[in-house]
Design brief:
With 425 residues, the protein is of the alpha+beta class. The chain has helices spanning 10-20, 51-60, 71-75, 78-84, 98-101, 103-112, 126-134, 164-175, 245-265, 298-303, 310-319, 357-360, 398-409; strands spanning 2-7, 27-32, 42-43, 65-68, 89-90, 120-123, 145-149, 158-161, 188-191, 197-206, 210-212, 216-218, 221-223, 227-230, 235-238, 271-281, 284-291, 333-340, 366-370, 373-375, 381-383, 387-395.
Length: 425
């Protein structure tokens, strides 16, 4: 079976790893891939935003299943292009992807369907956003407020401001193209700051039916103790204790089922992977954001626990038969520690040779997934991005998974390597 995976980060390495285990004996292509992915798939030089070229490749090479890794391809309509040509592809349509590609669309969608979320308002300019703040909708000058860019921003378009002055500075940096592209911040979203514990819940969906994945918790900020700027994610854990059975039931009834029913009612049934970023508040679970694909590094932590055949899951999503599948998961917990390059997230250094990868291959229940790597002229693995490696481990409990993770982390090195030492704490 020929499979194409679109993307080149840690999430896509996890997808390739999981697809490689399939009973379908797959030959996997990855566009564009990375040094780690190249060990188990054929990397091709097409970028995730080259939608027509990706579809041409799939047609020409008889690709039987395409799995879309990231949000950029989905927002550009890769699924629509593939389906138009009669190609099998797993992911939501361009219309359904608006739940992530526009934070304002997502908030208004939640309002229309009674899905619990933070109070919010929108602004079409920096001036209007500051005016809304000054009107006191989110409290006085000392009140915290969340400032978000409307469009896709690789996890860097959200600022949790401790007061109005910090919020106004965030508005300037977002609209001025400092933190994200100017296109991503053409509109600004202001939200009340929710208090509680964050948790992520992902699910497979086929338009009507769904299957839940293990709950996860990401660590977004660069510094230990959750300090410093937001990143794409510095580590993640999966642990059933993150959500009680009562909380899970509430999320299903108040968030998941209304979201899927609302998407179908609005003519864009959701087929693919839906990611719920949640805050567990005193009033109950509320949605912080939707993503329309696996998170990164959530994918790494979740897919190492999936015991069902991922090819069969993808087929069920495409065919609308997810209700006929009973997904199986490895018991216990998992953990991911991200190894990042010096200067991340602002200006990561690249080109450093990575040592220790051969040593950790022998570690029990540990997989090192590549996020930002390449090969130099001598065939050595080098850093090629901000988040470089996702060290991933499973165990019967969280303490064991974290111990295995950090034991492997200590074997890997390069000049400027950085990681948080408090993941899961």
């Amino acid at each position: 079976m020929k499979i194409l995976v679109i993307g080149g980060g840690g999430r896509e390495h996890a997808l390739v790893w999981a697809l490689k285990k399939s009973r379908h004996n797959a030959r996997i292509f990855c566009a564009p891939g990375n040094a780690g992915i190249a060990e188990m798939a054929e990397c091709i030089g097409i970028k995730p935003y080259q939608i027509k070229e990706l579809a041409d490749f799939a047609e020409t090479n008889g690709i039987e299943l395409t799995v879309v890794g990231g949000e950029t391809s989905l927002a550009l309509g890769v699924v629509d292009e593939f389906e138009k040509r009669g190609l099998r592809v797993m992911g939501p349509s361009k219309k359904a992807s608006r739940l992530e590609s526009s934070k304002i669309f997502a908030k208004e969608f939640m309002s229309r369907h009674g899905i619990p979320t933070a109070r919010f308002c929108t602004a079409a300019s920096a001036e209007e956003a500051k005016k809304r703040l000054s009107e006191g909708e989110f409290g006085g000058p000392d009140s915290p407020v969340v400032v978000k860019a409307d469009g896709l921003a690789a996890g860097k378009g959200v600022v949790v401001a401790k007061d109005r002055a910090e919020a106004e500075n965030a508005i300037e940096e977002l609209t001025g193209g400092v933190l994200v592209s100017k296109e991503a911040a053409e509109q600004i979203l202001l939200e009340e700051m929710l208090i509680g514990k964050e948790v992520s819940l992902l699910l497979f969906a086929d338009g009507k039916n769904y299957a839940l994945m293990p709950p996860a918790r990401d660590h977004k900020r660069i510094g230990e103790g959750d300090t410093g700027p937001n990143t794409g994610g510095m580590g993640v854990i999966t642990d059933a204790r993150l959500l009680s059975p009562e909380d899970l039931q509430k999320i299903v009834e108040e968030i998941i089922e209304p979201t899927l029913a609302g998407a179908e009612k609005e003519g864009s049934p959701f087929k693919g992977i839906l990611f719920l970023g949640l805050m567990m508040t005193a009033e109950g679970p509320k949605v912080l954001e939707y993503n329309v694909r696996f998170g990164d590094p959530e994918a790494e932590a979740i897919l190492v626990r999936l015991e069902s055949d991922l090819v069969d899951v993808c087929d069920a999503i495409i065919d609308g038969t997810l209700d006929k599948m009973l997904l199986e998961w490895k018991d216990g917990c998992s953990a991911v520690v991200i190894l990042a390059a010096r200067g991340y997230p602002a200006n990561p250094e690249t080109g450093a040779v990575i040592g220790g990868l051969d040593i950790v291959k022998d570690h029990q229940s540990v997989i090192v997934l590549h996020a930002g790597t390449a090969l130099n002229a001598d065939g050595e693995v080098i850093t090629a991005g901000g988040r470089v490696l996702a060290v991933t481990a499973t165990a019967s409990n969280l303490t064991g998974a974290l111990h295995r993770c950090y034991k492997a982390v200590n074997e890997i090195s390069w000049d400027g390597m950085y990681c948080r030492r408090d993941i899961g704490k």
